[in-house]
Every structure is written in C-alpha cells, then in structure tokens.
Design goal:
Blueprint lengths: L2 E7 L6 E7 L4 E6 L1 H10 L7 H13 L4 E2 L3 H11 L9 E2 L4
Antiparallel strand pairs: 1-2, 1-5, 2-3, 3-4
C-alpha cells in the first residue's frame, strides 16, 4: 500500500484533521485529529461549552465519512484548495505499514 498522511486544520470550522491519501487505490479521506482534539480539550475547557465549535465538530464527522476519488497529488491538492487549504499548509509524509 502506498499511503500518505498529513495534518491540517479545516479553515472554516477550525477542527484539526488528518488527511490520508491512498495512492495505490486512488482515494483520499479525512479523519478528525483526535490526538490534537484531546489536547485542545485539556487546554481550552471553554471550547467544550462553545455551541458553534461543538456543531462544527459534529459536522466535520460527515466529511470524514466520504472517500474522495483521486489519482495523484495534483488531484489531492485541487480538492484541498477547493476547501480553502493551500498546498503550502500541508506536508504529506509516506507511512510505512508492516
């Protein structure tokens, strides 16, 4: 498997995300960055009382249930740019899977 991973923050919701690009199978998916969200939870207690943030957290879950068909990094960056995420804002690293 040829899998790449990057971290970002959704520009409209301010929710931390992980982006996975599976180059072999030709799709990209998003996942809530639970590690960063847990850190935010411990540092910014007020966020968990903010209805807007909680709604954004719920809405981003819908995005995470979608696989985006892509063939290469150009396609990935095109989708990200449509979301308002610049190519310079993400750095993909290849994951080594055993």
């Amino acid at each position: 498997m040829n899998l790449f991973k990057a971290h970002t923050v959704h520009p409209e919701t301010d929710i931390p995300l992980v982006i996975y690009f599976n180059k072999r199978d030709g799709y990209m998916v998003f996942e809530r960055d639970e590690e960063v969200i847990t850190i935010l939870k411990s540092v910014r207690l007020d966020l968990w009382e903010n209805d807007s943030f909680l709604q954004n957290l719920e809405n981003i879950t819908k995005l995470c249930k979608t696989q985006f068909p892509v063939q290469n990094f150009d396609d990935v960056y095109e989708i990200l740019s449509l979301m308002g995420i610049s190519k310079s804002d993400v750095q993909f690293k290849q994951m080594i899977l055993h």
